[in-house]
Design a protein that fits this description.
Blueprint (H helix, E strand, L loop, with lengths): L13 E4 L11 E5 L3 E6 L5 E6 L3 E7 L2 H5 L2 E8 L6 E8 L1 H19 L3 E5 L8 E5 L1
Antiparallel strand pairs: 1-2, 2-3, 3-4, 5-6, 6-7, 8-9
Length: 136
Amino acid sequence: MGKKLVIEQDEILWKDRKRTLFGLPLSFTRYEVCKDRLTVRRGFFKTTTDEIMIYRILDVRLVRGLGQKIFGLGTVTLLSNDKSSPSLELKSIKASEDVRRFLSKLIEDQRASRGVTSREFLGMDGDEDGIAGEIE
């Protein structure tokens, strides 16, 4: 008889789905943000889950095309120093400007609470893209 695994659930601070036609949530891509991590789940028959620690995010970018503006949507791109997910997109989400601000504040709060600093160096360490991030 195996032991039962008990894991405490974190409070979800924000969640949404990728929006498609006319801003409706007809996609199987779901986004969730807890106090210390962001989770992206994709798929119906085969589900892929990507997770990134909030403090590892280096930059937040918002892009809103004309079609997205018409339906009140936008795409938030998160650039991180995570090896498996250096770039993560929250595609076609509602209130994208508010989400961008929320994530920026959450990132700063997480870094401060963990005592993490981030420094970017251009053209050092032979990095292919010329940017090397360092976390202490």
